[in-house]
Amino acid sequence: MEENSKIKLGISIGDLNGIGCEVALKTFEDNRMLDFCTPVIFASNKTVSHQMKVLGLNIVFNGVPSASKAIDNKLNIVNVWKEVPRINFGQATEDGGKYALKSLFAAVDALKKGEIDVLVTAPINKNNIQSDDFKFPGHTDYLAQELEGESLMFMVTDTLKIGLLTDHVAVKDVSSAIIPRLIRDKVNTIEKSLMVDFGIRKPKIALLGINPHSGDNGVIGKEDDEVLKPVIKEMANMGHLVYGPYSADSFFGSDGYKKFDAILAAYHDQGLIPFKTISFGQGVNFTAGLNKVRTSPDHGTAYEIAGKGVADASSFKEAVFMALKIFKNRTEYQELTKDVLKKQRLKRER
Fold first, then answer.
1. Closest by Cα among 301, 299, 306, 302 to 88
2. Do the beta carbons of residue 56 and residue 24 sit within 8 Å?
């Protein structure tokens, strides 16, 4: 990225029968958003024009053959396909998954090539997007394969951040999936993200128990005593500010979460239910731990309101701002650490 140039923000369009295109377009309906970044939607001119007509939106956009040709101060559309897909708002169709996948593949390819700086993904349907080329339970797992690093599903706002030890794993498999190495890896990933992506110098992290009441000293389950507690103690002894395990049922109601920079939940619903209850509409799903920045809104395809023009773009807009903020923080961190390493080298040479 050249100095003083705008951050180039890519958008995968998600399921065309959902609200993804709507919330993306509504986000950039306000021209002031173009002051912060250069947006690039991966879809097609005809598809976007059709969506705008149905939704009653009037937004000027610029069609480009690739993200590298995107123009500042314009909403850019990369023409990933030439045909006109059939839109059936509110329905999970084969085409809905097919074109969501085309958009995602094109956006991730541009991200890997450096044609865009960050990626915001609109919601997909995890069922109809499945194909020979995509056999993943969601964006996070696919991006973990395509990009470098160790991925962490991290739900974030400015005041609440919740990561997951296990994400799209069946409840019956959660306890067997949580092993010491996984805990160490996730703690290290969330800690590094808090430092690099959010500028927190010495982050405090709380771990939630696996079982109700964190096992009640083994009465309700032994995983907390035999797996979680030893690793927490080990990492604390190494200097990590890691605490727990805390009983999940009272942790959020008592405002205990406000004492920590982030919380690491044992499984999907344990973390996402309180997160969405507290922050719905303002939350962002961030895939931490990877070499590229990817965010998404905290909602799904919302088929029930798709095509009606009533979708709230707040969470998508927050995902845009969060991606830009994290990218800037990473760039600043790299510059600061580069200077430190340079000074250390010069000192040794003297």
1. 306
2. no
